[in-house]
Amino acid sequence: MTGYDASFRVWRGDPDGGALKDFTVEVNEGEVVLDIIHRLQATQAPDLAVRWNCKAGKCGSCSAEINGRPRLMCMTRMSVFSREEVVTVTPLRAFPVVRDLVTDVSFNYEKAREVPSFVPPPGVAPDEYRMQQIDVERSQEFRKCIECFLCQDTCHVVRDHEENKTAFAGPRFLMRIAELDMHPLDAAEESGLDRKRTAQEDHGLGYCNITKCCTEVCPEQIRITDNALIPLKERAVDRKYDPLVWLGDKITRRRS
Amino acid sequence: MATGTEHPPPETGPATAATARKGRGGVHGPARATIAAGHLRTDRWWLAPAATAAGLLAFVVYSTWRAFANADYYAAPYVSPFYSPCLAENCVPMKGGPNWEIFGSWWGLSPALLILVFPLGFRLTCYYYRKAYYRGFWASPPACAVAEPHGTYTGETRFPLILQNAHRYFFYAALPVAGILTYDTVLTFRDASYAWGHMGLGTLVFLVNIGLIWAYTLSCHSCRHIVGGRLKHFSRHPVRYRLWGWVGRLNARHMQLAWASLFSVALADFYVYLLAVGAFDDPRFF
Amino acid sequence: MTQAERQQWDVVVVGAGGAGLRAAIEARERGARTAVICKSLFGKAHTVMAEGGIAASMGNANAGDNWQVHFRDTMRGGKFLNQWRMAELHAREAPDRVWELETWGALFDRTKDGRISQRNFGGHEYPRLAHVGDRTGLELIRTLQQKIVSLQQEDFRDCGDYEARLKVFQECTVTRVLKDDEGRVGGTFCYERESGRFFVLEAPAVVLATGGIGKSFKVTSNSWEYTGDGHALALLAGARLVNMEFVQFHPTGMVWPPSVKGILVTESVRGDGGVLRNSDGERFMFDYVPDVFKDKYAESEEEGDRWYEDPDNNRRPPELLPRDEVARAINSEVKAGRGSPHGGVFLDVSTRMPAETIRRRLPSMYHQFKELADVDITAEPMEVGPTCHYVMGGVAVESDTAEAIGVPGLFAAGEVAGGMHGSNRLGGNSLSDLLVFGRRAGLYAARYASGPAARTPVPDAQVRAAAAEALRPFSGADAGGRAENPYTLHQELQQTMNDLVGIIRREEEMRQALRKLAELRLRARGAGVEGHRQFNPGWHLALDLRNMLLVSECVARAALERTESRGGHTREDRPAMERAWRRVNLLCRIADPDSDEGQIALERTTTEPIRSDLLSLFDKEELVKYLAEEELYE
After folding, report:
1. Which pLDDT value is given to residue A256?
2. Same structural domain for residues A233 and A114?
3. Of chain A's two ends, which shows fewer C-beta atoms within 10 Å, N or C?
C-alpha cells in the first residue's frame, strides 16, 4: 500500500468557541490517527494542541473522540477507515475544553481524591504481607487501568448531565472502590470505613444504570461493568437492602 | 513587554459564549467544545438498540396475549412454562402436573398472571435486561457517546428504580420456578396417556428450554455474588471459589443466555399452543 | 509582561515519574512542604512503560539471594564503572522499598506461599524481579500516585486543604533552576503548558527527577517527555554530568510501521524461544558469539534448541547474549545488506511454538503486533531492530545524599542521575534505582531545606532573564522571513544522533556530529513559532530543543573522548575494553561562553577506589579482567 491523502476534520477552538476544520493530509502505511495529528502539527497547524505521551497505548494521555467514539488516538489505526472516509477528531465531550483536542480532566483528579485510600492492616510489618494469587487477581484486573478517562467521558451520567458531576464518581473511581474493597488486606472495615455502603451513599453508585459503555470503550479490556460495578452494587445491596445478609452478619458477629 | 502571546483574561470571552448557549446541558454545556451535533458517530449505532427494542417488544406482545388467553396451555404431557405451576382452581387439571390450588376459586383471571410475576420480575431487574431496556426503550443513553434526550437523570438512586436492588430476591424466587419447570420437563418423558418412557419432539423442545433457563438463572450476577463474589478471600473458601469461577464463565454469556432463554421459553409455550389447538400432532420418537 | 507569580515551598521536585514521586513522598513525610512539577498529567510518566519488574534481593524465589549477590551482578553488568557506593546502597535498600509499596496498596504477583513472586532476568544470578505481569511500571506509578493522594487526604483532614503540604503542578515545564546571589539553589522558573503563564517556585532544595534523553535519537522506546530536561537544567545550574557516552540500545524494537518504530519488543520473546534470522533465513547470532562467551553459548542450532527444555545439560542459544552484543549483531547484519524489508531483522516465534502457546505466553506482544502492525506473530515473523532505550549517564551526585556535586540544594534521582549503572544497566535495576534514590533525594532535600540554608529570594534579574529566554521563540517568528521550524530542527537532530552517535561509533562520524550539532545550535536560536502561549506544542518543542542540543553534545563529546568500548559505548575504531579506562570518569560541564569549542567542556576525574569488603565479594580472576594493575595491588 502506498500513501494517500485523507480528509480530516479536526475540532479547533477554546472555551470561547470553535469549529471543525477541514484538512487534507498525507497518510502512510501503518499509521495511527495520532501520527496524522502530528503531521498536521509539523506541516499545517504548528499550534494544534494535543495531549499525548507514550504513543503505545500504555499511558492513556491521547484520549479523544474519533468519528464520535471515545478512543485512544495512538491505538486507532488509519487502516480501519476507508480512503474516502472523512475522519473527524474532536476533544472529549464530557469535560471542559482547554484548546483544540485538549480537555480539562481535573474532574477525574478531584474524584480520585474523594476515594479513601488503602488502609494498611495494623500490626503487619512491611515484609510480612502474605496474599494468595487468587485473592489479588480481581483487584489486579482493575489496576490495569491506564486512567485514559475514556470511561468517564462516555458515561452518560456525567457526559449528558453536568449537574451529576458532584454526586457521581464515575466508572473509573467506582472501580477503584471495588478494587480496594476486594483487596485481601485492606483494613478499612476494621478502621470503621464501610466501602460498600459509602460507594452507594457518597460516590453515587446508584447513578450507574449499567449500560456498559465504560466496558465498551476500555482500551485495557477491563470488564468494568461485570467485574467491578455490578459486584459493587451487589455489595451495596448486602449492606443496605438485604435483611437476610444483615441478620446473618449480626448473628455471626455476635458469635465470634 | 507586548508579546501578543498572553491569553486574554478569562472573564470576557467565555461569559458571553456561556450565556448564548445557556439552557442546554450535557455535551452542549457552556464549557464543552462547541459542536452542534449530539454525536458524531458514523456507524449504525441505532441498530443495536432498535433490534433490542423490537425483540423485547415482540416478546411482550406475544407473552401478554398468551398470559391473558387463559387457554390452550396444556397438551398432555406438555404444560406451557407460562402456566406452571398453576396456582388457581380454574386451571386445567394436569395429571401428575403442577396443579397447586393455593389461590382457590376466587381467582377469576388467567392463572398465568399469578406465577409470571416471578420470572418477569427476575428478568426486569436483571442487570442485562436493565441495560437493554434503558438503552432500547428509554434512550438513556440510546448508544454510547450519543447524547440522550432527557433533561435530568437520577439513575437508580430513587424510587422506583432503586427497587432494582431487589434483583437477588427475584433470583431466589427464580430458583423454585426453574425447579418446577424441570419437573415439567421430566413429565414430558410420558406419552399423551401418561405412560412413562416415551419421548417426542416436544420433549426435546422442553429439554433445550430448561437447559437455557437454568443457564440463564445461574449466570445471574446476583448468583455470582452470592456463591463467591462477596468473599474477600477466595483462598479460604476453595469450593465457593470454584463455583464462582463456573458461574463467572456462564456470566460472561449472560446476554446471549438471556435472549436464548427468552426465545426458548416462548417457543416452548408456542409449541404447546400449537398442539393444544390441534395444529399438528407431536412427532413421537418412541 | 505581567510579573511572574512567586510561591514558596520547601522542596520542589521536577518530574513525577517513579523517582520524583518517591522523593516527594519522602520529603513530605519528613515535614517539608513539597511541590511536584511535571510536563504530563499526574500518573502518565514514562515509568508506566516499564514491563519486566523491580530488582530486589528479597530472596522469595531463591533463598540464596542477598544484597551482596545483587551488588555483584550490578557491578558486572556495568563493567565495574558504577559508582560502587550507589550500587551498594541500591542493592541493600531495594527490598525495603518494594515491601513498602505493598503497605501503600501495590499488588504484585504472588508465590505459592503468598509472598511477592520474583522472575529471572538477564544478568541477575537469581530470580529477583518483583513484577505484575508485564505492567510493573504502571503498578509502581499508580501506587506512588495513590500514596500521594492519601497524604493529601491526611492534609485535608488536618487543615481542610488537599494541597497544603504536597501539591502536584501537572502539565507545567521548568526551564531554569534559579539560584540566589550566593550560588545556592533558590527555586525553579516554570510555565503552565495549558496557559503559557510563567511562575516561580521558590525553594531552597530542588530535586531533579526528569528521566532520560531518548528523544534526541530518531529510533527510541522513550516518550516525548524524554528531552533531557533535568540533565540540561543541572548543567545550566553549574552541575556536572557523568558517563554521558553510555547510552543503552535495546536490541529489539519494532521497525515497522514507521509510526511505532522503536517501541519495545520484550526480551521474553527470545527467552521463550524466539530466534533471530536475516533475510537469507539464517540464524546469524551463531556468528557473533564473542570469544569471552564462547564456552557459555551453544554452537549449533540443535544444542540451542535443547536448552529451552534442558538448561542443565545444554548451553543457551546466542540469541540470549547480553543486550549490547545482540544489538551490535543486528546492526552488522543490516549494514551487510541482509536486513528485512524495513531495515531490521526477523524475530520469529511463529515456527517455534504453536499459536495457542504464543498467545498464552506473550499476550501483550501478540496484541501489540496485531493492533499496531497488523502482524500476526503466531503466523509470521516480527521485524525488529535496535532502539535507544536508556541513558546510563547523568548528573554527578553524592552517592549517599543524591545531591549534585558542586551545587548546594540541587538533588537528582532516577535516570537523570548518573553513576549507579556504570556503563550498562541491568534490566529491572531501573525501577529499584528510582525507589532507592528517589527516597534518598527526598530525604536529604527535606533535611537540607530545614537546615540553616538561608532563604533569600531569587533576584528579579534572573527571573526576567528566564522569562525572556522562554519567550524568544515568539520573536523568532516576528523577525519575519527565515524563522526555523522547530519540528524540522528536531528531526535533523534525531537523524544526526541516530546515524552518527548511535549504537556503533567512529571517530570521524562523531566529529561530524559535533559540527552538525553546532550548526543546529545556531539555527535553533532562530527557531520561531506561531500563535500564542496557550497549549502551543511548537513553542514547547522550541524550548525543549535547547535541552536536547546540550545533552546531545555531551553524549557526542564524551563518546569521542573515551577511546575504548565498554557496555553502552561501542567504538568500531577502539573495539577493546581497556582496564585503564575503568577508573576514568568523563564529566561534562557548561563551557565558558567565549570558548569556540562548543557549549560543553569535558573534565577527567579518577574514581574513588572500591571499598575492600566489597571488592572481596569477587574472585581475583574476575577482578583481573576489569581493574587496572595499580588498583589490584592497593
Report:
1. 53
2. yes
3. C
Residue B254: the pLDDT is: 97
- Contact of A193 with chain C, judged by CB distance below 8 Å, is answered with no
Parent domain of B101: 43-276
Inter-chain residue contact C535 with A49, CB threshold 8 Å: yes
pLDDT at B120: 95
Verdict on whether the full-model pTM lies above 0.90 = yes
Residue C475 with chain B: CB contacts under 8 Å = 3
B5-9 long-range contacts, CB within 8 A, separation 24+: B5/C196, B5/C471, B5/C474, B5/C532, B5/C533, B6/C1, B6/C2, B6/C196, B6/C532, B6/C533, B7/C195, B7/C196, B7/C532, B7/C533, B7/C534
* Domain termination residue (choose one: A103, A128, A144): A103
What value of ipTM does the predicted structure carry? 0.95
Residues 9-68 of B with CB under 8 A from A: 10, 13-14, 17, 25-27, 29, 31-35, 39-43
Whether the Cβ atoms of residue C467 and residue C534 lie closer than 8 Å to each other: no
**C129-130 vs A86-90, strand pairing mode:** unpaired
- The confidence score (pLDDT) of residue C453 equals 66
Extract the residue ranges of chain C whose pLDDT is less than 70. Answer: 1-2, 292, 453-454, 476-482, 594-596, 633-634
Backbone angles phi, psi at C434, to 5 degrees: -55, -45
Out of A95, A135, A160, closest to residue B148 by CB: A160
Mean pLDDT of B177-198: 93
Structure-block grid coordinates of residue A17: 468557541
Contact at CB, A139 and C530, closer than 8 angstroms: no
Query: Could you tell me the three cell numbers for A14?
Result: 477554546
Chain A / chain B CB contacts < 8 angstroms: 166
* Structural domains in chain B (count): 1
Inform me whether the pLDDT recorded for B22 exceeds 70.
Answer: no
Q: What is the CATH number of domain C249-388?
A: 3.90.700.10
Position C24, amino acid? A
Domain boundary assignment for chain C: 249-388, 464-606
